[in-house]
Design brief:
135 residues, mainly alpha, two-stranded antiparallel ribbon, 8 helices, globular
Length: 135
């Protein structure tokens, strides 16, 4: 389902994905940019200068007028990266691949925790719900 979504990108962006100039993560972030001119500009920047998937996701949020509240919420949770449980990191990575979006797991004391699944618009939310069998 995630790969099928990438078919909605313009041909030149799909070609850069096939050629390895951008990653699937970059391409998914570009899907979140609805304005073709901003999408093209962001894509050109990724191809020419490089950039992280997180930067592409931030560009997508900004293009939709988002305030970045999700990023602010994440920074409010203090955790030490080197102390993160490798099992939790593995589960996060598997969920990201399966759901095709950013997933974060923050585990607190006593085994309790929070799973955060990002979505970019109502269509993306429905896609994620379908992937979870809740659609």
């Amino acid at each position: 389902a995630n790969t099928m979504r990438l078919l909605h990108l313009p041909p030149e962006i799909r070609s850069s994905l096939v050629e390895g100039k951008i990653t699937e993560g970059h391409a998914r972030a570009l899907l979140g940019i609805h304005d073709p001119a901003i999408r093209e500009q962001t894509w050109q920047g990724l191809v020419q200068k490089g950039g992280s998937v997180r930067a592409a996701e931030t560009a997508a949020r900004r293009s939709r007028g988002g305030t970045g509240a999700a990023a602010e919420t994440r920074t409010a949770v203090t955790r030490t990266p080197e102390r993160r449980d490798p099992h939790i990191q593995d589960v996060e990575a598997r969920l990201r691949r399966t759901l095709g979006t950013k997933v974060e797991i923050v585990q607190g004391r006593g085994g309790k925790g929070v799973v955060t699944i990002e979505f970019y618009d109502e269509e993306d939310l429905n896609r994620i719900l379908d992937g979870l069998g809740c659609g």
